[in-house]
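Hi, here's the filled form for the chain we discussed.

Project: internal
Contact: R.S.
Residues: 459
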Amino acid sequence: MQLPSRFLTSDAGTFGEHTASVRWPTLVQNMINDLTSELTDDIIGTNKYQQGLIIKDQLIAFHEEILADKKLRKFTEEEVELAGIPHRFNEYLDNQSSHITWQDSEWLFAEIYLYRRVNVLFKFQSLWKSFDIFDRIKQSTFKSSLHGVVELAIRYMNLRDQFKSTTDESVLQILYKEFVEISLWGNATDLSLLTNATLEDIKSIQGAKARQESEKKIVVNDTEQSWNTIFKNYGKKETRVDFVLDNSGFELYADLMFAAFLLQTNLASRCIFHAKDIPYMVSDVMLKDFDILIHDLRDRSFFPVEINSVEDKALNIFANDMTDFMTNNRLEFREDSFWTCDLDYWNIDPSETKYHGKEVHQDLLNSDLVIFKGDLNYRKLAGDRTWARTTPWKTAIGPLATNGLTTLSLRTCKADVQVALPEGLDEQLCAEYEKEKPGFGSWWCSSGKWAVICFNDSK
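And the returned structure, exactly as it came back:
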């Protein structure tokens, strides 16, 4: 099969082109602004301040490099050594037939390369090498989610004891569907169906109209197939569910809520969360972000609810349950440089020995369901290629269709790549979005207003 090309930052009229020319310079400028905020009077004259100024000047130069559309350079040997840069990046650049620039390169590679370049600047300064330049935006965004965080914590608290006692398949399936959607949409979730009611009440209110309203923006929905995979093991064997994470803050909170439901109902005996090893894609989860989130849930200066109130109790119960799951090894966080390499997930393959692909594959074979969260993971699953939008999911994920992994992609659509649509739907959505954004109808799948849930069982 002749594979379609990958999306390029020079593809006219695409969201990728817009990202390279507009979003990346803005992103780096935001880093400069946030670093400036860190360089307060408290550290003026210190070594940390002087090192921070060096990084700031380098970020300014990097910003100018992107604006000037300079070629992508290789990492130096010193950068590779000090910042732990996978050799894959330089090998990729060596293999290009001509010089590639910020605005004329494969979108997937250049975007991931950008975050590695930024990480190098911090790694070279000893007092900043563990600093997360995105922590400020991560925290402010999560703090602004107070209402949703509290509401979901109360839902969890009111249903928690019932989770442990119910074995009703129909109730469990309804709840599974709800938690999948909460994990899918993150802070945009409509929580109205998870009321303060009992499980039996929840079962009774699930009408066709309510379900239809909740799901109308999910243009591919394989939730039922994934449910069948989870439930077939119920009460028969220990079940492991893996999450390849996307965003920290509320989305991580929603993912933890999904995991808590699975663990409390014994639909899963263990959940493993796969985080990033460097500050990445602005808001992606690192190992430290779990501890920060749990601390935030308990901190009344961060989430200012009244002490001893229902809200306070609910937040603390959820935080305590997460800590207990970690202590009892039912919930585990891991990191691996594979997840921050430019390689697409076709490289999660038994034959891939060079860049951890084989090791990742061997580990995930122990999982009963691997949930890939978010847009970037979807892009990597489909190779970020210019597939026709009706291309079957099994075709787009290549070796993952048949190499033994059971996978579920939960993606809010924020990039050009899109597959698995029924005939005619893309044209319909393009026409619909064209009314809102004249001249940009095809960008519906970059708008974040639609989502897909794609399942594959290759076992």
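Let me know if anything looks off before we file it.
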